Amino acid sequence: MCVEGITTVYWYVTQSLQKQGFTGAVLAKALNDHGYNVQCAQGLTQLWQLAEAAAQMQQPCIFIVSGGAELPAITMRLRGIHSTAGIVAMLPEYSEASFSQAFLCGVDNCTTTSAGSTLVLAMTNALSRHLHFHPVVPNHDSSWLLVDEAWTLLSPAGESVRLTTTERAFMLALAQSPDAKVSHQELLSCLNYDNDVDSVRVNRLGVLVSRLRRKFEAKGMQLPLKSLHKWGYMFTAPLRY
């Protein structure tokens, strides 16, 4: 797994990309040379096993998943297994639609398979800093706290869940509202969903909320988030940052 000060990186390349000649071996070697403990998963079964073991041990780790059309399903399952892991998606080519979908499915960062070692190292270092930063925050009341620059949501019981970019923006919008409730329109604007038609935007927001609820349920927690019919969302417990 990993030892103190070292983040384990689990690398998985889908079969479709392997058939196209991409292995990620050069990038994996660069990460290993810079002090990361790099382990390559040879198949999805092994990837799930590694994720489950890492989640049980609650140790910092990053998954780098290289793939195409199958990548959203893989990242969603990884996020469901290990809610606090860092996840980087590597797609065959850039498109706003595919990158947006990857973020909505739970990845922390995206790049393409043409990325060089300098960029991959920078992205991995940034994620590693977040994973290893665990501030001690007194929580003597029933408040939920956004800590680690709002990248982590801490429950009143002291349990934490790491947030993705879009989840962080969603929770910050609620925390910054005086009554902890925000309209669909305001949330969609915060999440930069303005370019989509209304039905698509609201559906994307619903997917985000459903995934966020599942992350907390996977850790035995109920997120005090209420849907306000045809208007927006409200956090029904004290929330501060």
- Main beta sheet: strand number and arrangement? 5 strands, parallel
Number of DSSP helical runs: 9
The amount of beta strand, in percent, is 15-25%
Helix-strand pattern: EHHEHEHEHEHEEEHEHHEEE
- Widest β-sheet, arrangement of strands: 2-1-3-4-5
Euclidean distance between termini CA atoms: 32 Å
Question: Which stretches are poorly predicted, pLDDT < 50 over at least 5 residues?
Answer: none
Structural class: alpha/beta
User: Can you give the helix content as a percent range?
Assistant: 40-55%
Explain what you see.
Helices cover 43% and strands 20% of the residues. The model has no long low-confidence stretch (mean pLDDT 84). Helix 2 (25-33) crosses helix 6 and helix 3 runs parallel beside helix 4 (71-81). The protein is of the alpha/beta class and 241 residues long. It has 9 helices and 12 strands. A 5-stranded parallel sheet has the order 2-1-3-4-5, with helices on both faces. Strands 8-7-6-12 form a 4-stranded mixed sheet, with helices on one face. A hairpin with a 4-residue loop joins strand 6 (144-147) and strand 7 (152-154).
